């Protein structure tokens, strides 16, 4: 839901971004727990790499940065609308949040990806 992502992104402060950075290893480990062929895993990896590289470039947090961070935080936190433990549908809400961020910021994410010499995945 776009409004939910916008509200969530607006809550991501520089302090939250620092905390997310501190949990980098745990974040990547949780993403790695998903099936290797999972579209959600691929999408989360794109957002995680984007945030890692943004931190290294040390730019001011933009809407795309805050909303990408919100999507990762949503995936990692236990405040899901649908608990992850429910078989078959537990990650549906996470996938919808991530998809919304990717669709909303496709141009910026794609440009970032290409600037770093990577091919953009058409299936995203």
Tell me the radius of gyration.
14 Å
Mean pLDDT: 89
Q: What is the strand tally?
A: 0
The main sheet comes to: none
Oligomer: single chain
Helices and strands, in order, run as: HHHHHHH
Structural class: mainly alpha
Distance between the termini: 18 Å
Question: β content, as a range?
Answer: under 5%
The number of distinct helices, counting runs of at least 4 residues, comes to 7
Shape assignment: globular
Considering DSSP H and I runs of 4 or more, what fraction of the residues is helical? Answer: 55-70%
Unreliably modeled segments: none
List keywords for this structure.
124 residues; mainly alpha; 7 helices; globular
Written description of the protein model:
With about 120 residues, this protein is an all-alpha fold. It is about 65% helix and about 0% strand. It is built from seven helices and no strands. Helix 4 crosses helix 5 and helix 5 packs antiparallel against helix 6. The longest helix is centred in the middle third of the chain and has 19 residues. The two termini are about 20 Å apart.
Please sum up the structure shown.
The chain is 67% helix and 0% strand.
Layout of strands and helices, then pairs:
Layout (H helix, E strand, L loop, with lengths): L1 H9 L3 H9 L1 H9 L6 H19 L5 H14 L15 H13 L1 H10 L9
Helix pairs in contact: 1-5, 3-4, 4-5, 4-6, 5-6
